[in-house]
């Protein structure tokens, strides 16, 4: 009877150990599965961040090229405007020169008229 009780006790202990071992393996498998799921989820976020960073790098390069082109075009426009301003100044200088010549010619014409009238009056007297 004692040996039977001992055997039953040992059998129950073995069952409990097996049950405990099975639960331990299940817990390890569940923890591994959870860890893999978390890592996969994290990797998706990291992969998306990497893709976004590559897109941003491409956009930055494109923007740099466009900014350089815009800078060159702006420099050309500035050069053209400066040339136009210089041409306008030269036109203004020619206009002033023409006015000055016109004034001199009027002065000379007036002087010639005065001299011519003086000659006519002295010849008729």
TrEMBL record:
GO cellular component terms attached to this protein's record: BLOC-1 complex
Transmembrane segments: none
A GO BP annotation: endosomal transport
Catalytic activity: L-lysyl-[protein] + acetyl-CoA = N(6)-acetyl-L-lysyl-[protein] + CoA + H(+)
Region of interest called Disordered, as start-end residue ranges on this chain: 1-21
Pfam families the UniProt entry points to: GCN5L1 (PF06320)
Family the entry assigns: Belongs to the BLOC1S1 family.
PANTHER family found in the cross-reference section: BIOGENESIS OF LYSOSOME-RELATED ORGANELLES COMPLEX 1 SUBUNIT 1, BLOC-1 COMPLEX SUBUNIT 1
Protein name (database record): Biogenesis of lysosome-related organelles complex 1 subunit 1
Species of provenance: Solea senegalensis (Senegalese sole)
